[in-house]
Amino acid sequence: MKIAILTLGCKTNQSESLHIEKYALSQGNEIVPLKDQPDLCIINTCSVTSKADYQSRQLINRALKESKNIIVTGCYAQLNKELLLKNSRLKFIDNKSKDELKNYLNNKELNHLNKLIELSRTRPIIKIQEGCNNNCSYCSIIYSRGRARSREVISIINDINDYSMLGYKEIVLTGTNIGQYGIDLKGNINLKTLLYEILEKTNISRVRLSSIEINYIDSEFINIIKNNKICKHLHIPLQSADNNILKSMNRPYTIEEFSDKIISIKENMDDISIGSDVIVGYPLETDNEFNNTYNFLQEFPFSYFHVFKYSKRANTLSSQYSIRSSFKEIDYRSKRLINLSKNKKRDFISSQIGKINEIIIEDKEKDFLFGTSSNYIKTYISEKHTYKPKDLVKIRFISFHQDIVLSEPII
Questions:
Q1: Model confidence over 194-209: pLDDT tens digits?
Q2: Residue 405 in contact with residue 380, Cβ under 8 Å?
Q3: Options 1.10.10.10, 2.40.50.140, 3.30.420.40, 3.30.70.270; which CATH number does 356-409 get?
Q4: How far from chain centre, in Å, is Cα 328?
Q5: What is the dotted CATH code of the domain comprising 121-231?
Q6: What single DSSP character describes residue 239?
Q7: What is the pTM of this model?
Q8: Is it true that 2-105 and 356-409 share their CATH fold?
Q9: Sequence spans of domains, the chain
Q10: What ranges in 27-152 are assigned the alpha helix state H?
């Protein structure tokens, strides 16, 4: 059977789609693009912003033209189930029941379930938990993903060892809120104990963490990620650098607490890349609150940050507030932050020229091989070197020009 798997949104969605792909291939199915008119199309949707809602609807409409059998899942589908089921051609599977997808992928003539399947990416994404127990005023995740639920440690370890046997050198740990890993498990289990287990019981060369909230970062966590096997890259959502806005957002920290931990991270690992997320146009934001955020981001050692315009989500606390800024003002603030992020990224990369790192080879582009370093820099090396995807290569960054980073292998 020909199957298309279409994914929008976060690394949790990507991890789930990767798991679906792995199972589909193990059952003898073929993964194809949507344009090949698949027998079945699975769409993993997103609803983090109104733009994500729109993209989900677009993808569903495209699929309706190309495939007779369509399954929709993910956060947009979860929050708009009644609307989607008005179309008899759409099958809905909620976020908590995604294992039911296996019922549509089985090929009973084949018995390849336990066969290791090599996937078409160089760093598998492993979901360690799902859901979030926070209640940020702007976020609808609690409605679409539910409360925090964690996978057992042994299951995660087995996944990592399986991928390691296939030659993968790096895995990415992801979830809705990975800092809440273990909160629902018996015993003293958390993200830190999981990392200890991974370092002790797997042979994987690199472990990369997806987004993590600042309140789960402490001195013990910082000491763990100093280990050479943990990628020197943290993505820590900020959202705002104004305490009044943070309080209204129900964020569990003050800007002073956030800044102290960022300073501590950089003091322990000077070459670490620290990314973030920022919301502009939150209902209570004025120029004063925005300037506090801009000045903080300008001053502190971020390597980049993603900028999101506030998007009103149904049933959230902030949806009851009136927006104090015009669309023109919000657009202007967004552009200022995007330009600042570009400059911060260039400054960080420039600081790494001449330094040694390691990259995972991902693919070839024109006359170069490219890969991503431990501290999240995409870089190119000459194709004359006989490396292949998934290889771990020690390199030195040698130049940075017009946003292209060149490196040379250290042999």
A1: 999 999 999 999 999 9
A2: yes
A3: 2.40.50.140
A4: 30
A5: 3.30.750.210
A6: B
A7: 0.82
A8: no
A9: 2-105, 121-231, 356-409
A10: 50-66, 75-79, 81-84, 102-105, 141-144
